[in-house]
Model the fold of this input.
Amino acid sequence: MGCTNVQLPRFQRQLVDWLDLNVRHPSYSLFEVDVTQTRQAIREYRRRTGRPLSLTAFVTACFAQAVEENRLMHACRHGRRRLTIFDDVDVAFAVEHEIEGHKIPMPSIIRSANRMAPYEIEREIRDAKTGTNPRAWAMSWLGPWLLLPGAVRRFILRRLLANPVRRRRITGTVMVSAAGMFGMGTGWGVSPPSYTSSLLIGSLGRKAMPVDGRTDIRQVLNLTVCVDHDVIDGAVAARFSQRLKELIECSSGLASAALLSIESDPVTVMVPAE
Done:
């Protein structure tokens, strides 16, 4: 049987270093969210305002708010005994860019996503997809960098990311991945434990569910929340997942007059924590 040998993309080698640095003890929560009314609210929002808004952007906005309500969810370990807890939620997400003939997911960061309206997050995602590679400057140094032994590279990166403020500037505080956009059918994803908490948006499907005493076909979104168990206790993670589910299913104020009105500088209207 024949075979073909090809060179591993250079940036993929750098990604291996990053994954080796992030050895954590993950805990995963896999759950379903009924987004039937949410998608209706998004369609109504687009019709009334003329602004684009995707389900991914809306879920990201809800995730950022849920983290803001419990800021421990994006706390960063600082040494053995301390945690650094940030005020703003910087959401990292991956956007594919073609690099040296390969499609490579490159990280982009939405700064202070907890202070943004869903349509503003949508704009950030669209700009990242259509704009230039935000890490293009690093590619010019990638060749010489990869000439260093792997142990030396990881030592430098470990020292570089040891400071929580510097780490936040480089990597953000949480991550959202949208794996469901690449396929159809029911399924969840499991992401590497690279952040204190991260969200993986899985597939969108239909499912028969009991509603008001009868069975109805509902649109269901599969979500996976991954947390670092060294920082986040299981009960805290469970309550966080439940809160995220509530924010998404109630449309998090999306249908309110404040968000549906067309203003030059709209503000985000969110459902207050219970």
In short: The first helix runs from residue 10 to 21. The beta strands are 26-34, 76-78, 82-84, 91-99, 102-110, 174-178, 197-211, 214-228.
